[in-house]
Structure to design on (277 residues):
C-alpha cells in the first residue's frame, strides 16, 4: 500500500519539535522540509519579583499557558537556588493550566492543578474554566506564552482581578532569515506540496518575510491554491484566516502528531477523489 504522503514535500516551520515533526512526516512517506520560523528569546528579569510575591502568599492564582513557560520558570528558579521555595509556594496557590503540557510539567513536581481548560485548549476554554473561581480583588499571576494574551488579561481584569503578568520568552524571527526567504520563493514557485503550521507566530513570520520580498499576494495565492495548508488548531487557523489563507487541514486534537496524521488522511482522500474523476 502506498503511504499517503509518499513523495510529498511538507514544509515544517516548527523550531522546538522539528525532529519529531519530521519523523511524523516520514512515517507517512512524506519528505520533511524543516525551516524554523521562530526563535525563542528568554526574558528572566521578572522571575525574582514573581517568586518573592508567590512566596509571600500575595498570589492567589497562577495561570500557566504553556509547558515551555512552566519549564522556563522552574528552571530559572532552580538556577537561582529557589526551586524548592517556588514549588512549595505553588502548592499553596490555585493552579490553572490552558493545556496538558504545563500540567504535566507541574505534576512532575507534585504541584496539583485545580483548573484545566477543556479541548481544544484555547483561551476561550481557559476563560470558561476560570469562571468557576472568585478572582475579584485577588492577585492572579499569568505566565504567558510567546506573546501576551490580551483577551485573557482583559477577561480577568473585567472580573476584578489584580494581575501579575510574566512573559518569560518571546518568539522572535530566526537570526538567519535566508532559509525562510527561500521557503517563501519555493512555495510561490510550486516546489512545496504542503505547509504545516504549529502556532500562529509561524504564520505571521512567514508573511512578514513575504512582505520583505514583495511576495505577499503571491504567497497568499499559492497557499490558497496548489499548496495544502495544515493548522494545528483553531487559533492557528484563525491567524491564517486573518492573513487571507484558508486552512485545508485542522485536526480534531490540537497536537502536532494529530495534525500530520490529519494531513496524511486529507491527501489520501483527495487522491482518491482525483482517481474517481
Amino acid at each position: 500500500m502506498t503511504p499517503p504522503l509518499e513523495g510529498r514535500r511538507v514544509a515544517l516551520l516548527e523550531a522546538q519539535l522539528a525532529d519529531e515533526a519530521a519523523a511524523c512526516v516520514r512515517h507517512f512517506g512524506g519528505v520533511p522540509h524543516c525551516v524554523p520560523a521562530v526563535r525563542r528569546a528568554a526574558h528572566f528579569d521578572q522571575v525574582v519579583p514573581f517568586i518573592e510575591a508567590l512566596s509571600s502568599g500575595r498570589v492567589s492564582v497562577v495561570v500557566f499557558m504553556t509547558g515551555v513557560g512552566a519549564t522556563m520558570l522552574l528552571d530559572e528558579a532552580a538556577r537561582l537556588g529557589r526551586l524548592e521555595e517556588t514549588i512549595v509556594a505553588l502548592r499553596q496557590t490555585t493552579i490553572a493550566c490552558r493545556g496538558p503540557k504545563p500540567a504535566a510539567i507541574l505534576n512532575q513536581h507534585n504541584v496539583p492543578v485545580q483548573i484545566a481548560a477543556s479541548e481544544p485548549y484555547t483561551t476561550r476554554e481557559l476563560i470558561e474554566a476560570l469562571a468557576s473561581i472568585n478572582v475579584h480583588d485577588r492577585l492572579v499571576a499569568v505566565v504567558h506564552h510567546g506573546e501576551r494574551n490580551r483577551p485573557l488579561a482583559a477577561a480577568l481584569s473585567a472580573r476584578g482581578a489584580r494581575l501579575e503578568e510574566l512573559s518569560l520568552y518571546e518568539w522572535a524571527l530566526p537570526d538567519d532569515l535566508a532559509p525562510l526567504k527561500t521557503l517563501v520563493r519555493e512555495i510561490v514557485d510550486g516546489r512545496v506540496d504542503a505547509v504545516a503550521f504549529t502556532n500562529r507566530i509561524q504564520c505571521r513570520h512567514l508573511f512578514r518575510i513575504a512582505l520583505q520580498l514583495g511576495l505577499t499576494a503571491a504567497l497568499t495565492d499559492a497557499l490558497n491554491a496548489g499548496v495544502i495548508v495544515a493548522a494545528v488548531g483553531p487559533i492557528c487557523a484563525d491567524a491564517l484566516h486573518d492573513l487571507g489563507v484558508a486552512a485545508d487541514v485542522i485536526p480534531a486534537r490540537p497536537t502536532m502528531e494529530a495534525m500530520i496524521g490529519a494531513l496524511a488522511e486529507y491527501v489520501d482522500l483527495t487522491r482518491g477523489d482525483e482517481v474517481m474523476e
About this structure: The chain has a mean pLDDT of 94. The CA atoms of residues 139 and 162 lie 5 Å apart. The chain is about 45% helix and 15% strand. The longest helix spans residues 256-276.
